[in-house]
Amino acid sequence: MLRYLVLAAAVCIFCRWAFGKWPWEYLRPAPTRSQAVFRARKLLGIEAGASREEIIAAHRRLTTLVHPDRGGTTAAMQEANAARDLLLDELPSPGAGGGE
After folding, report:
1. Rounded Cα gap, residues 88 and 86, in angstroms
2. Does the pLDDT of residue 9 top 70, yes or no?
3. Which tens digits make up the pLDDT trace of 35-61?
4. Are the C-beta atoms of residues 19 and 26 closer than 8 Å to each other?
5. Does the global pTM surpass 0.90?
6. Nearest alpha-carbon partner for 37 in 46, 29, 24, 28
7. pLDDT value at position 91?
8. What b-and-e string marks burial along 55-66, b requiring 16 or more CB atoms within 10 Å of the CB?
9. Angle subtended by helix axes 52-66 and 33-44, to nearest 10
10. Per-residue pLDDT averaged across 54-78, rounded?
11. Interacting residues of 63 by C-beta distance below 8 A, sequence separation 6+
12. Residue 30 backbone class (left: φ over 0; alpha: ψ -120 to 50; beta: rest)
């Protein structure tokens, strides 16, 4: 029995080393777009239904904190940019909804 536990632990460690994930992380479902939008809003600190100007202003506030030139990291800056881009993509296009 102990052999199986040691073998299972070795397989888990190898999986983490080789693929960068623990085996049980493959069992989680991929995040949905709505979850990504929620996380982006939370990161930027804005409410649902924020305007384009509010999103851009929140992004500017965040980048002053996480920019690599100010002691932040490149990863944090990329995450802030991705959040901004995602939320801007979620906005309705200017020509949608209007009729002539």
Report:
1. 5
2. yes
3. 899 999 999 999 988 999 999 999 999
4. no
5. no
6. 46
7. 87
8. beebbeebbeeb
9. 70
10. 93
11. 77, 80
12. beta
Q: What value does the mean pLDDT take over residues 14-22?
A: 88
Q: Mutual orientation of helices 33-44 and 74-90 as an angle, nearest 10°?
A: 120
Residues 6+ apart with CB under 8 A from 72: 65, 66
The token duo for 43 is: 């990161």
* Helices 52-66 & 74-90 angle (0-180, nearest 10): 180
CA dihedral (53, 45, 90, 48) positive or negative: negative
Q: Where in the chain is the domain with CATH 1.10.287.110?
A: 31-92
CATH superfamily of 31-92: DnaJ domain (1.10.287.110)
